[in-house]
Amino acid sequence: MNLLGSRDELASMLGVPKEEIIRRLSEVSPEGEVRLVSESPTLEVIEDQVDLTKLPILTHFEKDGAPYITAGIVVSEYGDTINASIHRLMLAGKDKLAVRLVPPRHTYLLHKKAAEKSEPLPVAIVLGCDPTIIYATSTRVPVGKEFEYAAALRGAPVELFECANGVKVPHAEIVLEGYIDPVEKIDEGPFVDITGTYDVIRKEPVIHITRVIHRKDPIYHGILPAGPEHLLMMGVPYEPRIYRAVGEVTTVKNVVLTEGGCCYLHAVVQIEKQTEGDGKNAIMAAFAAHTSLKHVVIVDEDINIFDPNDVEFAIATRVKGDVDILIIPNVRGSSLDPRGAPDGTTTKVGIDATKVLIEKENFERAVIPEE
Questions:
Q1: In degrees to the nearest 10, what's the CA dihedral of 337, 259, 150, 247?
Q2: Mind listing the pLDDT tens digit for each residue in 67-83?
Q3: Greatest CA span in the chain, whole angstroms?
Q4: Same-domain check for residues 66 and 91
Q5: Does residue 329 contact residue 347 with C-beta atoms inside 8 Å?
Q6: Same-domain check for residues 74 and 214
Q7: Which of 38, 167, 226, 289 could share a disulfide with 241, CB 3.0–4.6 Å?
Q8: What is the mean pLDDT of the chain?
Q9: What's the predicted TM-score (pTM) here?
Q10: Which of 95, 181, 193, 337 is catalytic?
Q11: pLDDT of 2
Q12: Has 193 been annotated as catalytic?
C-alpha cells in the first residue's frame, strides 16, 4: 500500500515541488512512446489452474461484501480500442470477480459494445507496476491513451507485452487474464468508497479469470479504500481539468481537492482576480469541469490553499453571504455522496472568498516587520 500515499510522493515522482503538481500535470500531453515487446519478467510463472484465493485479497472493513482487489488496473481491448483503468474487483469464486463499471466511462462502454453483440470483452488485470502507470490509469485522458500518458509523465517509453488473450499490458508483479461475460451479473458490494461510507449493492458484470501470470515471489499491491492513496489517485486527476477550465475564464494559479472533502467533493481554487465577477465565473467553470464536485471555494493569491485555516480565514473575512455564495439546486452530483438524492442530483454551493477589488485596502493582512 501507499506507493502514492501523499502529495509529497507524487511531487517526487513528477520531479516538482508539491505546489507545482497541477501545473506540471496540466502541461503533459498523452503522447509518450509505447513499445510492444515479446519478453516480460511477469511471465516467470504461468498458472493455467486458476485459484484466486491464493492471492492475499483483503477484506478491509467489517461490512465489506467480500474480499476486494483494490489496486487492479483493468486493461480491456475491443476492436481497435484499448482502455486501462482502475476498478474495484470483488472476489466471487476461485476464478470469478465482480467488477464495478461506472457509466459512461470507457470500460463500461467497451463492455456495452461487446455485450450488444453477445461477445465477451477480453481483459487483463494488472497488479503491481510502475507508479506512473498506476497514476495514469486513474486519470481521465482520451480513450486508449493511458499508457502514452504514463510514458510522457515518466519521460521514458512504456513497454507492453501481449497476454494469451491478446490484451497488451505493462510489466507487473501479477497479471490476471480473462474476460467480462456479456450477460452474467451478480450482487457487488457493500464496499467502502472514497467518502469512507458504504456504497450500495448493485448488479455488476462478472470477470472470468482463465490464466494467472506473475513474477517469482510477487508483491501484491492493495489500496486501502478511503485511505490516503485512494484519495490521492481518485482526486488529483480532476485537479488539472478544473485548472484548465478555470483558466478559460480568469487567471488561475492553483487548485486542490481537499482531504476533508474526500479529495473529490470539495475544491479550493486560487485565482488572480482582475475584475469583479471573476470569482463566480471560476465557480461555474469548476463545477463544469468536475460534475461530482459539491462545494468549491475561490480564493486570492495570498491564501495558502493547502492550509485549511487560511482558507477558513478567507471565508470568515471576505465573504458576504447574500452576495458571495452561489447556490445551485437540482444538479447532477456524485453517486458516492451519501446526501445525494436517489436520482443522482444534489445542491451545489460555490463560495467567492476573494477580496472586493475597490476595497482591497480593507483586506490587507498585517505583517510583523523584520526590524
A1: 90
A2: 999 999 999 999 999 99
A3: 78
A4: yes
A5: yes
A6: yes
A7: 289
A8: 95
A9: 0.90
A10: 193
A11: 63
A12: yes
